[in-house]
Write a structure and sequence with these properties.
The chain has helices at about 10-15, 20-25, 30-80, 105-110, and strands at about 100, 115-120, 130-140, 140-145, 170-180. It has about 180 residues and is an alpha+beta fold. The chain has one domain. Strands 1, 2, 3, 4 and 5 form a five-stranded antiparallel β-sheet that branches. It is elongated and about 115 Å long. The N and C termini lie far apart (about 115 Å).
């Protein structure tokens, strides 16, 4: 076995020839400015991705609420279609009947999710009526549709999207119903 020489302390003078200006230039690596710039760009991109992810959740909630409202409007339209034509003249929705709730807890607390508004109008023909059903609802604290207070009545300042004297909503169905003979 070979014996190793004992370690000796190196002085700064002994290391001086090893550390020269040319040796420092050949050392590769990133400067502090390059690292800060890289991390700031990375943080900016990650914030953008996070905002996109949050917006996806908001849009998913809105899509769920729109689907629920559309299904309720279609169900109400089918109910009107199944009603006898002679009885359509007196067809109305009670205030309690036209409200819908997210769950039983909201129903018990009286917190409405939305309102269904059905209007039946006569046409120029005696055997033809027009049915129009809309729903306005609350989605994440924002009312979708023109009925801002969800009371199924056109109040002052509510007819703002399409100024036509009736409540409008993105969820709307209209059809003509005729008397079958």
């Amino acid at each position: 076995m070979k014996k190793l020489a004992p370690m000796t302390k190196l002085s700064a003078k002994a290391l001086a020839p090893l550390v020269t200006r040319t040796n420092l230039k050949s050392v590769t690596g990133f400067t502090l400015i390059e690292l800060l710039l890289t991390f700031s760009i990375l943080a900016f991109c990650l914030c953008g991705l996070l905002l996109t992810y949050i917006n996806m959740f908001l849009l998913a909630d809105l899509a769920r609420d729109l689907t629920q409202a559309t299904n309720l409007v279609q169900a109400k339209m089918e109910e009107i279609k199944q009603t006898d034509f002679a009885a359509l003249a007196g067809f109305t929705l009670d205030y309690d009947e036209n409200s819908f709730f997210q769950d039983e807890a909201q129903y018990n607390a009286g917190l409405k999710k939305g309102v269904i508004i059905a209007t039946l109008t006569n046409t120029a023909y005696d055997d033809l009526r027009q049915a129009r059903i809309i729903t306005c609802f609350n989605s994440r604290g924002r009312v979708i549709g023109e009925d801002k207070n969800l009371n199924a009545v056109l109040d002052a300042g509510e007819d703002i999207l399409i100024v036509n004297g009736v409540l409008d909503s993105p969820v709307e169905a209209a059809t003509l119903i005729t008397e079958t003979r």
